[in-house]
Amino acid sequence: MEAGALLIVALSAHGASLKEAEQLFLSGNYTQCAAVTKQEVQEQPYSEGFQMLLARSLMTSGRYGEALTVVSNALDRSYPSAPLQWVAYEVFLCNGQTDKARGMVDKILQSAGNGRVSSRDAAVLVAIGRAALLKGVEPKLILDRMFDVAKRSDPDAREVYLAIGELALDKHDYALAAKTFQEGLKRLKDDPDLLAGLARAYSPNNQTLMVENLEAALKSNSNHIDSLLLLADHTIDAEAYSDTAELLDRVLQINPWHPEAWAYRAVIANLRNQPEAATDAREKGLKFWPANPRVPHLIGLKLSQKYRFVEGAELQQQALKFDPDYLLASTQLAQDLLRLGKETEGWQLAQDVQKADGYNVTANNLMALRDSMLKFRVLTNEHFILRMSPHEAALYGSAALELLEQAREKLCTKFHCTLARPTLIEVFTNQSDFGVRTFALPQNDGFLGVCFGDVITANSPGAYPGHPFNWKSMLWHEFCHVVTLNLTHNRMPRWLSEGISVYEERQKDPTWGERITPRYRDFMLGDELTPISKLSAAFLMPKSQQHLQFAYYESSLAVEFLVERVGFEKLLAILDDLGKSSEINQAITNHIGPMESLEKEFAAYARQTAKKMAPGLDWEKPDLAARFGKTEEGEGRPTLDGPATETAQNGFSWETWARSHPTNYYAMKGRAQELINARKWSEAKPILKRLLELYPDSTGPQSAYRLMAAACQGLGETNEERVVLERLAERDDAATDVYSRLMELARERNDWPAVALNAQRYRAVNPLVPGPYRFLGEASEKMQDRRMGIEAYTTQLELDPPDPTEVHFRLAKLLHSEGNPAARRHVLQALEEAPRYREALRLLMEINKNETDRPRGTSTLD
To answer: In whole angstroms, what is the distance from residue 524 CA to residue 541 CA?
Structure first.
């Protein structure tokens, strides 16, 4: 006889206590719990504790009709308590009897109003609080006057922590939710419901902790449905659909009619282009409650998370037909409409949700964002609608539109794509605003931009102070998403979408996009390479920021591999198949070959690519972590912050180690850094020269080019410093310090084309500071490029330069040479600041003379 059966026999023999029966339930023995509690109900027909536990056991097992009989009998026997009425509410609802369910809520509140409940009974207070929330009572009031009172009354009542945590999750207060579930777990260790609740609290921001808590919950209760479903949700995000199916099978073995399990089944069927299976799963999810809005809402939510917003919106509308007051569907529909570019309907719906629920975090965030965006300036042409702050629009709005037009012409032609509507781009200076517009929450996990199809949201260059990025590269990347998502009707795995965009960045400009680094080399030759079929999951739960960036690089390398192996036209054929609803592995098999063989070839290709990186260097790493206790992110070596003597004091010398490793990357770089720190410039130079000969593509903040430039500068070798920095600038798309120094050096040599080039490089990273415009304006005058000069000085005035008089004067000269009447205004502004400015006075006299000499009836531009 099995252990569960033995336990039932034992409990039946002496009569089970309610606590023992509850333990059966919490450990996942739902069928056994139902058997034991059924016997106890027969013997104790007025025991509400056993009645409620029996109903919940039957519900969890999918025996909804039997649960309905249990609660109906319980309600008929006596004056039911609020907790029993709440269980009845849940049972009626799951059986599709919504009127009776609403009636239970009313009765709970009537009992509370009649004073027939104990103000110190935690279970009663929780039931009343939950009922009041359904009636729209202020959540803060319920929290303070019901749930907190209940917790003080009975700190060991698990329902209290569940109620508070669920309320916090519903309002997207994940910090409060996590705190509450953690507090409950201190008293109720290993409680699976609390662990699953804590996992949900972590799910938006820390999926590693989410998975850890789900594993703990399933260790406590291997049949815990909420945990299995959250894991299923996670595997769908990772595009691990086979794993999802296995998890859902486990749920359906416990409850063959669980509506959310069938909803997830419908999601997988939709993503695999199995419409009949999707319809069948949806119908099974609605079997006992045909108008359950949760089913279409959940299917639509997951499809929208896969960027299939049209289908997602349709399903939210279906949910609202089932229940017009289902705010989860209204909130999601508002976001779907906004991401589809249907802004009038989307903003109106968000406003309606806010009016219906003043504590709806998503709606409140969206409406606050709308108020902020009303101040945006809109730049338009035939193909684009660009929204950004007025200040930034004046600084680089026209340059952004020009770049987007180039991207459209290049990429639409290359991918044979015709876009049916203009692309909307919204650029946010405030990271929180970007987060709300993109994710409905102010948190932003480091995204620079996101494309939804015909809508792009992006962070401005000013959104990440101290973390420069090339905004031109970012916009090119995002517009490539516009093209590929339109071609596939948003039906493409994340790895392929990101891989193509990064690949196309490098095709446009070799300095753009992710490229191989020493750290990536280690990943590729170690065990960090992800098989193509699982590559999308690498974006979901990366071990570190470096691993996330590596996912982008590896995806682009996979695309590069496919193009080199079978040609670009085959890649287009795969995209065409995806647009016709083919599954990615099948599409690849159709045009290239079996995925298993392809993955082996790609792994070999990636390893070969890694080995080709600076093959003349020795890449062995000295074991320094044990000595220093820390490694430098991205380099895999100790941080050398101090002078050379600091390493000697720790018992290690790069000089000594380098004797046996003369071409070792880490030894050469480490020794050079020691010498630079010690100001031994001449000794550092030959090491760095050799290192750069062997590894000419060294880039980033730790580049050997920077060390060589420092050595040259220390020796006063300006010309050689300039050459070194130019080599780095040709390889690094965000090195603003390098561009600044090159502008200075080029100006000293009167090399005005080089000044202009590096000013434009700087502007592509940070267009929000006056320095590059000052250099660009001067270079344009020397090069007699009036258009560039007018733009540079006009933009510089937007940045409140320290000497506006000179800028106004120089701009006036250029405008006057173009015959532009705005010259008078700017020269007058210069004279307003400096009335004795002789050159400005002469320019004003010349402008006046020209206007006097001009024949009547002619314009200043004739």
So the answer is: 18
Q: For 590-606, what is each residue's pLDDT tens digit?
A: 999 999 999 999 999 99
Q: Which domains does the chain have, with CATH numbers?
A: 377-612 (3.40.30.160), 803-862 (no CATH)
Residue 541: is its pLDDT beyond 70?
Answer: yes
With a cut of 80, say whether residue 431 has pLDDT above it.
yes
Which phi and psi angles does 427 have, rounded to 5°?
-115, 130
- For 333, the token pair is 């529909």
pLDDT, tens only, 195-221: 999 999 999 888 899 999 999 999 999
Residue with tokens 């003379």: 849
Map tokens 């010398």 to a residue.
653
Apex 819 CA angle, 817 and 825, nearest 5: 90
Rounded Cα distance between 453 and 481, Å, is 7
Residue by residue, DSSP assigns 546-577 as HHHHHHHHHHHHHHHHHHHHH-HHHHHHHHHH
Q: Give the alpha-carbon dihedral of 271, 272, 275, 276, to 10 degrees.
A: -130
What is the C-alpha separation between 700 and 721, in angstroms, rounded? 17
Residue 459 phi, psi dihedral angles, 5° rounding? -80, 145
Give the pLDDT band of residue 858 (cuts 50, 70, 90): very low
Predicted TM-score of the model (pTM)? 0.89
Phi, psi values for residue 618, rounded to 5° = -90, 125
Q: Which amino acid is at 789?
A: G
- Helix (H) / strand (E) element for 356: namely helix 343-356
- Cα 202 to Cα 209: distance, rounded to the nearest angstrom: 6
Residue type, 468: P
Task: Report the Cα 24 to chain-centroid distance in Å.
Answer: 40
In the predicted model, is pLDDT for residue 441 greater than 60?
Answer: yes
441: nearest Cα among 677, 203, 678: 203
Q: Give a three-class secondary structure readout of 241-261.
A: HHHHHHHHHHHHHHCCCCHHH
Residue 427 parent element (H or E): strand 423-428
Among 3, 69, 13, CA closest to 39: 13
Query: Is 855 within 8 Å of 844 (Cβ atoms)?
Result: no
Token pair for 787: 């258009």
User: Is the per-residue pLDDT at 348 higher than 90?
Assistant: yes
Separation in Å, CA 233 to CA 173, 201, 208, 264, 313: 20, 14, 14, 8, 19
Residue whose tokens read 């044990």: 626
d(C-alpha 514, C-alpha 477), whole Å: 11
DSSP state of 461: T
> Strands 449-451 and 377-380: what pairing?
unpaired
Given a cut of 50, is residue 643 above it in pLDDT? no
Residue 665 has pLDDT above 90, yes or no: yes
In the chain, % helix, strand, coil (3-state, to 5) comes to 70, 5, 30
Instruction: Name the DSSP class of 618.
Output: B
Q: Locate the DSSP E strands across 258-401.
A: 377-380, 384-388
**pLDDT above 60: residue 6:** no
pLDDT of residue 657: 78
Average pLDDT, the chain: 90
Work out the pLDDT band at 645, boundaries 50, 70, 90.
Answer: very low
